[in-house]
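From the shared-data thread, chain only:
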Amino acid sequence: MNERRLRKRCKRFLRNLGINPPLEVHELCRLLGDDRGRPIRLVPYTLPVPGPFGMWIATDTVDYIVYQRETSPSHQDHIILHEVGHILADHTSEASGCEFRQILPPDTPRGTINRALRRTAYDEESECEAELVATIILEWSSVLNHVTPRTSEDPALGPLRSALHPRWGWM
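Structure, as tokens:
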């Protein structure tokens, strides 16, 4: 995929979800799940090293993003956003439910696992695309977190905020 088109697609996606700086990855996943009509559950899990840092497991009714528990919060956000990239691109891979059942929370419905993607390397186009989505979102959020003014309780700033509102956010 062309990087310029992917950047435009990510920007449109974030604007349509109504995501505002600062970026909260858990909130982005909640809004994406609401938008798709399929909740996204985030599952921290101690994954063996070496191995994948994260995976997307799609059941009949819920998407699970499993991510490495034993890493920094910023790396966890990147892992989650990488898996969001797979969801947005609807990357597919057949999976055996038995292989992943022990990772999911005990209250997980016994529905069929339709697909599971594990990230281990970036030599496939789908992995590169998902990684680029994560990088684009984190890059934009980093910039926007620094340039977007924080809300103030001062009522005198209300008109200024209203006038500038459309210019802030996922430009």
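The radius of gyration is 18 Å.
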